[in-house]
Prior knowledge:
Largest sheet: 4 strands, antiparallel
Amino acid sequence: MIPEYFKTRRTVRSYDRNRSIPDSMLNEMLEAAFRAPTTGNMQLYSVVVTRSEQGKKALAPAHFGQPQVENCDVVLTFCADFNRFEKWCKVSDAKPGYRNFQSFMTAVLDTAIVAQQFCAIAESSGLGCCYLGTTTYNAPEIAQTLMLPDRVVPVTTLTVGDPAVDNQQADRLPADAMIHRGHYRDYSDEVIRSFYAEKEARQDSARFIAENGKKTLAQVFTDVRYPESNNEHFSKVYLDFIKKQGY
């Protein structure tokens, strides 16, 4: 039977600042997260823990001032990290060959898996989490703030704390929209409309459309939230930084 947590989980962006996560609990959750699957048992990730008010304030601009960065109890920056593994290779008379895209993607996958394992552990323990997609937008600034060395690249960030409110669960597409049995089944216009119909009919979707002066919910995504110009700009920023870090 699937645990109820996985059916009811929700993102939390507002935290009770009067309740703090004990260091012992945070360490225990991180240690459990590090049992997550990893490529070749290399564990190609590191996690930078930011708890001080000064540290969170320093990170906030790179995350476009999202209030949960300063209002949470802990900010966790999950990084793809070949620095540690390569140094082990060198002190062990082994020649590393990981300055390439394949190796970077290997480290990114390790990092994403361990971040999600931590998220599940924290949320199932009664805490609230929020992923920050802005990590890849401003990776150079985050790296400078956290003093990340060569071969270490920030991939994703979690804000963590005790939930202040009972947040509404986000909508999701029906499972059939993502499941392909035997081979990929491409979508007709009719099928696409049916899969997105419930999302488009929501009251909050209608509000987003009205607030942004658009005709459809899709236009909110393409023209306002994730426009091509921004995608192109931040793609170059991140790609240039990845190369600078040695991949």
